[in-house]
């Protein structure tokens, strides 16, 4: 990763859920830029967004913030079309675009098979389409996918991970690869109410998606942690409530061993 991109991504970005419409997320990004956030991360899920229209809309409404896709699903978005959209947008807005791509989940994609080979092929096609390796980032959870992210992209944008995952990814990939985990936060004064909001968000659908549950098991979480709405232990590892600002305690948990992870904070309320 270049020093310039390290500076551009900063330490904390703003992550906007796909449940909000394009116009709302554009307004959020304008406000995030005003508040000094360096990156607006746009969640998409399995939606077809190959034209990257909302990315261009947000770039048109802002002046400095980087817009990152988080992520463009490989099953529902043709790599050649995505690459053409990337070239179109960067010809107007330069290097304010970070193309996040990922494999998604078998529960959401009936064609899901051979995920590693599919990721390699998709990155090959982005190469051929003129998307530079250091202007894209890969959603990666397991060790093999993390190594692919380090070898073929700027790094990894993992969603719904515990601090141990980020620590292990940094140990595995070294100091120069971007690891930008999404971090859910709940703003409020009541810890119990905040935990209920977080549990409702995590349990449906995320605790029903095998890619996430398998990843939690890698770090010592058991069936008891994953059943129902999830255990207190899992809930506290995945999200924090905070009174007004990002939880400093949880930020330290992700950074206490020098992992230098640019967190992407997603508010739920």
- How far is the N terminus from the C terminus? 34 Å
CATH homologous superfamily - what is it? Luciferase-like domain
Shape label: globular
CATH top level assignment = Alpha Beta
CATH architecture: Alpha-Beta Barrel
- Assign the structural class, choosing from mainly alpha, mainly beta, alpha/beta, alpha+beta, or little secondary structure: alpha/beta
Q: What's the structural domain tally?
A: 1
* Biggest sheet features: 9 strands, parallel
Give me the count of strands.
Answer: 11
Report the radius of gyration as a whole number of Å: 17 Å
The overall pLDDT average reads 88
CATH topology: TIM Barrel
Topology:
Layout: H1 3-9, E1 12-16, H2 22-35, E2 39-42, H3 53-61, E3 66-69, E4 72-73, H4 79-93, E5 97-102, H5 115-128, E6 136-138, H6 143-152, E7 155-156, H7 163-173, E8 178-179, E9 182-187, H8 191-203, H9 210-218, H10 223-226, H11 232-238, E10 239-242, H12 248-255, E11 263-267
Parallel strand pairs: 1-2, 1-11, 2-3, 3-5, 4-5, 5-6, 7-8, 9-10, 9-11
Helix pairs in contact: 2-3, 4-5
Give a nutshell description of this structure.
The chain has 269 residues and is an alpha/beta fold. It has helices at 3-9, 22-35, 53-61, 79-93, 115-128, 143-152, 163-173, 191-203, 210-218, 223-226, 232-238, 248-255, and strands at 12-16, 39-42, 66-69, 72-73, 97-102, 136-138, 155-156, 178-179, 182-187, 239-242, 263-267. The longest helix is centred in the first third of the chain and has 15 residues, at 79-93.
